[in-house]
Design brief:
single chain, 3 helices, about 5% helix, Neuraminidase, 2 domains, 4-stranded antiparallel sheet
Length: about 500
């Protein structure tokens, strides 16, 4: 009963209209900058959107978790009225689409498939298996997520553990990343995956995925798929016997430890670049999309946008590399989507398509599935643009000039740090909490940056920074989103 009351309260609160006011002055809201447009899907069809790809001729391919692929025309505009054509039916849980050289590639549960429409009737009539070098048992949780083609023409596939917990001889390579070459060769590339929710590439071509809270994952995280790297969950390590070139099976991590401690003992362990604090950022991170629109989507070029299924929103991630490892901050970006977001895809015009479902764990968005588009209005929100680690604190830049007085006032900020238990048990509370001290806030000459001198930064911790006192220059306007969560894997030497 308690759980039901809490859930009802959350859903009720989410449905209420939001009036953002300070005093008598209305403050900007997310939709002033990034409105969401709902795109009608084929009537009578259940399309739990699990893959989106842009096709030639301003067409969009939309895959459904249930195994259908539709191609739409006329999906742009403020009031879209698209024409949909059934392109393929009968696939098995398609969780990735990519178009290359006249072929539509689909990552489905048992294989990577490519399709063509040879007779020109709008429906695929040629289906070819590209790679199927992994096992499936029939367990509902054996997801397979695939990227679009990388710069070499490869598709990266991440395989969920059986039931998200186990691995057996009937389903080889569960919990692994497989790289599928244009020739169809399937190369075991990384291991230690638990229950992924999506995969994507950054602007440099490096591959990232989202792993959900659970065993050996204290909280959900954005992780870097470094070739040969260990992502943290040892259940699939038994498949080392089926590989060559990756060496012997590594030792198991110590349950109850911390990632920062185990890194010293397990050199292949890749710390998560960005931990997504459970319940604060979301509960089910999913698809990853990089803004390579060249400014058509606003001021966040080359940053990552991470879909969130249970909270029906999209978060934003800034990454940097320190001492050879990725790390960075996650920020709230946009909420209020119609269903649970699973996937996002930027279009050539700079808009971002999103889609998803409320299946399984449910979602704050009330619809069973959705297909939507986000446009930038041209207005720039007052936001943290980048957050970079320094030897003695953090440096923040903003999308607009900030009030110098509030920038320099240490009382404008609060900071705390914490981490999670690295254990075979499910999830973790926040532990090892500390309260770093902001000793000084130094505005930089550009008027859009500040250097925070901080005593007590902790390697391996999430640093949760709130900035309620900051104001935009010449106004009483606060940040659109005042919180940032920075995962400090490495402290810069300079």
């Amino acid at each position: 009963m308690k759980t039901f009351i809490i859930l009802f309260t959350l859903l009720y609160a989410f449905s209420l209209p939001v009036f953002a006011e300070e005093g008598s002055v209305s403050l900007p809201v997310e939709s002033d900058f990034y409105p969401i447009t709902t795109i009608p899907l084929p009537e009578g069809e259940v399309i739990e959107v699990s893959g989106i790809e842009i096709l030639p001729g301003n067409q969009v391919a939309v895959a459904s978790r249930r195994g259908d692929i539709f191609v739409g025309e006329g999906v742009w505009g403020d009031n879209p009225s698209p024409k949909w054509t059934l392109y393929a039916r009968g696939l098995h849980e398609t969780l990735g689409l990519s178009w290359k050289d006249g072929w539509l590639y689909a990552t489905q549960r048992p294989e990577v498939t490519r399709m063509q429409d040879r007779d020109g009737d709008g429906r695929a009539d040629v289906f070819e298996t590209v790679a199927d070098d992994w096992g499936i048992s029939g367990n509902y949780h054996e997801y397979a997520f695939g990227t679009r083609h990388d710069k070499k023409g490869d598709i990266w596939v991440i395989l969920c553990l059986t039931g998200s917990f186990g691995a057996d001889d009937k389903s080889p390579f569960r919990g692994w990343c497989m790289r599928v070459t244009p020739a169809g060769e399937c190369i075991p590339t990384g291991y230690g995956i638990r229950s992924p929710g999506g995969i994507g590439l950054n602007h440099l071509g490096d591959v990232f995925y989202c792993d959900n809270e659970g065993t050996w994952n204290g909280s959900s995280s954005l992780k870097h798929l470094r070739p040969g790297g260990f992502q943290g969950n040892p259940r699939g390590n038994k498949y080392f016997a089926l590989t060559s070139g990756l060496g012997p099976e590594p030792p198991e991590p110590e349950s109850g430890s911390r990632i920062e401690i185990e890194r010293k003992r397990l050199p292949d362990l890749v710390p998560p670049p960005v931990i997504l604090p459970h319940g604060k950022v979301g509960n089910s991170p999913a698809g990853i999309e990089c803004d390579e629109t060249g400014g058509k989507f606003g001021p966040f070029s080359n940053q990552l946008f991470v879909s969130e299924q249970s909270h029906s929103k999209v978060n934003r991630v800034f990454l940097e590399k320190v001492n050879g490892f990725y790390q960075g901050a996650v920020f709230p970006f946009l909420e209020g989507f119609g269903s649970g977001n699973i996937v996002a895809r930027f279009a050539p015009d700079g808009s971002m398509f999103t889609g998803g479902t409320n299946r399984g764990w449910g979602s704050l968005g009330k619809n069973p599935f959705s297909f939507q588009r986000v446009n930038w209005t041209g207005k720039i929100p007052f936001e943290v643009h980048e957050m970079r680690a320094k030897p003695d604190g953090f440096e923040l830049s903003f999308t607009q000039s900030a009030d110098r007085k509030t920038l320099a006032d240490v009382s404008s900020y609060t900071i705390e740090s914490y981490t999670y238990i690295y254990q075979k048990g499910y999830g973790s509370p926040e532990v090892d909490q500390t309260e770093p001290v902001i000793k000084k806030a130094i505005p930089l000459k550009d008027g859009k940056s500040v250097r925070l001198k901080i005593k007590g930064m902790v390697k391996g911790h999430v640093h949760e920074l709130k900035m309620p006192g900051l104001r935009r220059e010449g106004t009483d306007q606060p940040l659109l989103h005042e919180v940032a969560y920075y995962t400090l894997n490495e402290i810069p030497k300079r």
